[in-house]
Amino acid sequence: MKKLQDGQLQKLIEAEEQRQRDELELIPSENYVSRDVLTALGSVFTNKYSEGYPGRRYYGGQENTDKIENIAIDRAKKLFNADHANVQPHSGAPANIAVYQAWLNPGDTIMAMRLDHGGHLTHGAPVTASAKLYNFVRYGVKDVETGEIDYEEMRRVALKEKPKIILAGFSGYTRSLDYAKIAAIGQEVGAVLMADMAHIAGLIAAGVLPNPFDYGFNIITTTTHKTLRGPRGGLILTKGTVSNPLRAPEKTIDNLPTLIDREVFPGSQGGPHMNTIFAKAVAFGEALDPSFKVYANNILINAKRLADELLKRDFKLVGGGTDNHMIMIDMFGSYGLTGREAQDDLDKVGLPANCNAIPDDKLPPYRPSGLRLGTPAITTRGLKENDMVTIADWILQTVKAHGNDKKLATIKAEVVDFARRFPLPSDI
Ligand code: DSN
Q1: What is the pLDDT of residues 198-247, one digit of tens each?
Q2: Which CATH number does the domain housing residue 329 bear?
Q3: Cβ neighbours for 306, distance < 8 A, ≥ 6 positions apart
Q4: How many domains does the chain have?
Q5: Closest Cα to atom 2, ligand 1: which residue?
Q6: How far is the CA of 194 from the centre of ligand 1 (A)?
Q7: Nearest C-alpha to atom 5 of ligand 1 is from which residue?
Q8: Looking at the structure, do residues 275 and 338 belong to the same domain, yes or no?
Q9: Which domain holds residue 73?
């Protein structure tokens, strides 16, 4: 990458590059993008305004932007077996809001997972705009040991509350959702079936986890920067018939693609960020390559092994293990440290992870009991299954060294030495 003229800011790019090289990223929603994705993000497409959709723009000069948006749409449809893709959402939160607006009227009911059981803020946390507009009802886990969802309670609440959308999705849940059971409940009460797959989109695209569309879901929303390993951004995938987004269609399930297009633009966003859409097209191309399936499979292998190694070291895991890329440690229940204390200690040794609420957490959200970690980024760096033994050892040593900065500095030196053997993709 070319150096900035502004020396003060150039130093910060170099410092962040060095931090990323010297640490091993364990935050499950982060990843390291390729050099091509970075190049696309920094390209001249950032100069362009493109309100509208390919072939129907409000500004001139769209001969290249139309092509890249169409490539991004076609690749996304292919990756997820969707009838339509909207690649314009700026990120996951605007993608979810556009779907709610497309299908609901203010006051309508959505059923979604409890935040402390693994759901996401945009699934109706009281502090969000959506929670002020719509009525959210909840489902959660039946058993913290196994992480199983309480599907009987879900059905009972759905029959009573008649949600117009049932939302399957999470940002802090480590087990598999039973899409068939959720779809059956949704069909019984006449709800639209929406899956927020932000965390596991790359695993679905690679075919190593099931695709909700195969179980009758109507909509998938996702971010593009987690397991999908693209730029920070959002994406909405739909089943249905695509028609002209300039004309308001009737509110039917078959018209969802067009209803959603109209709610992304002009409903909730202005000009799409064309450099990001270009970078999405690049990342989707990378995800269509057979090597991405190998990568996604290795994420799962590494996560299972890391979970097993943590269990051997007496860490209590919410859900008892993992079926995806993510692990949730009950840190307070395991070693008497809050998730935040563990996060701060892991920061000191170069293993960033994040504190997280666990089901029915007795501690407050800013210093909860849980610590969430995952393997998408370290798998991109090239770490293999046996390396998970080393990572688990370091996590245990770090937790035991709480308050001992000298010991933490010794672990950090080992982590840096090890991490430098695995270059960032953008350095290759
Ligand atoms: N903040 C993201 C995560 O870390 O899971 C979700 O939006």
Answers
A1: 999 999 999 999 999 999 999 999 999 999 999 999 999 999 999 888 88
A2: 3.90.1150.10
A3: 327, 373, 375, 388, 391, 392
A4: 2
A5: 29
A6: 18
A7: 171
A8: no
A9: 39-288
